[in-house]
Automatic annotation (TrEMBL):
GO terms for cellular component: plasma membrane. Residues 68-187 form the MotA/TolQ/ExbB proton channel domain. The keyword Cell division does not apply. It holds the Pfam family MotA_ExbB. Keywords: Cell membrane, Membrane, Protein transport, Transmembrane, Transmembrane helix, Transport. The chain crosses the membrane at residues 12-32, 113-138, 150-171. It is a multi-pass membrane protein. Belongs to the exbB/tolQ family. The keyword Transport applies. This is MotA/TolQ/ExbB proton channel family protein. It comes from Salinispirillum sp. LH 10-3-1.
C-alpha cells in the first residue's frame, strides 16, 4: 500500500488528507443528525400535554431548548406565545434558521472535497504525463522504467482522486437529503403547535 502511495507522488498527500477529512465529516454528521438527537417524535405530544395542563415552566423550556434542535425551536415559539401568532412564527423562523445552519455544518466542506479530489487526481495525471514526455525528450523511448513511473503516477493519482470524490459526493447528497427531511419534519411540528395554540387561546 505504501508503495502505491509513494508511486503516486506528492499529490497523494492532499488526496489522503481529503479522504480522512471526508470520513470524519461523514461519521460526525450521521451521528449528529440522528432523529432522536434532532427531532424526537414524542417531543411535540409531551410539550402539548404540558401546555394543556398548564405545566409549561421556564425550567422545562430551558431544558428542551438545550436537549434537541426541535426543542430549541418549539421553546423559542412558546416563549413568545403570549404575544400572538405572528410573534410566535417570527421567533420560530429565526431559531429555525440558526438550527438549519448548524445542521448543514461541514456539508459545504464535504462538497468541496468531492469537487477538488478528482481535480487533484487530474493534476497528478498531468504531472505524470509531463514526466513521461520529459523523459522521452531527454532519453528517448528506450528507458521503459522512467516512462512507466510517469504513467503509474498519472493513473494512481487519478484513481485515488476518484476514489475519494465518488463516496464524498454520494454521502454529501445523502446528508443533504437527511437535513432537508428533518427540517420539513420540524417545520410540520412547529405548524401543528402554532395552529393548536391559536385554536385554544386559553392555553
Amino acid at each position: 500500500m505504501f508503495e502505491i502511495v509513494k508511486a503516486g507522488g506528492w499529490l497523494m498527500i492532499p488526496i489522503i488528507i481529503s479522504s480522512v477529512l471526508a470520513i470524519a465529516i461523514i461519521i460526525e454528521r450521521f451521528w449528529v443528525l440522528r432523529v432522536d438527537n434532532v427531532a424526537p417524535r414524542d417531543l411535540l405530544p409531551t410539550v402539548w400535554r404540558r401546555v394543556r395542563e398548564n405545566k409549561l415552566s421556564a425550567e422545562y423550556l430551558k431544558a428542551i431548548k438545550q436537549e434537541t434542535w426541535l426543542g430549541s425551536i418549539l421553546a423559542a415559539g412558546l416563549q413568545q406565545s403570549r404575544l400572538g401568532r405572528e410573534a410566535m412564527k417570527d421567533s420560530i423562523q429565526q431559531q429555525a434558521d440558526q438550527v438549519a445552519h448548524e445542521m448543514e455544518r461541514f456539508l459545504n466542506s464535504l462538497g468541496t472535497i468531492a469537487l477538488i479530489s478528482p481535480l487533484l487526481g487530474l493534476l497528478g495525471t498531468v504531472l505524470g504525463m509531463i514526466q513521461v514526455f520529459t523523459a522521452i525528450m531527454v532519453q528517448g523511448t528506450g528507458n521503459a522504467g522512467v516512462l512507466a513511473g510517469g504513467i503509474s503516477q498519472a493513473l494512481i493519482t487519478t484513481a485515488a482522486g476518484l476514489s475519494v470524490a465518488i463516496p464524498a459526493m454520494i454521502f454529501h447528497r445523502a446528508l443533504t437529503r437527511r437535513v432537508d427531511t428533518l427540517l420539513v419534519t420540524m417545520e410540520q411540528d412547529c405548524v401543528k403547535l402554532v395552529d393548536a395554540l391559536s385554536a385554544e387561546p386559553e392555553a
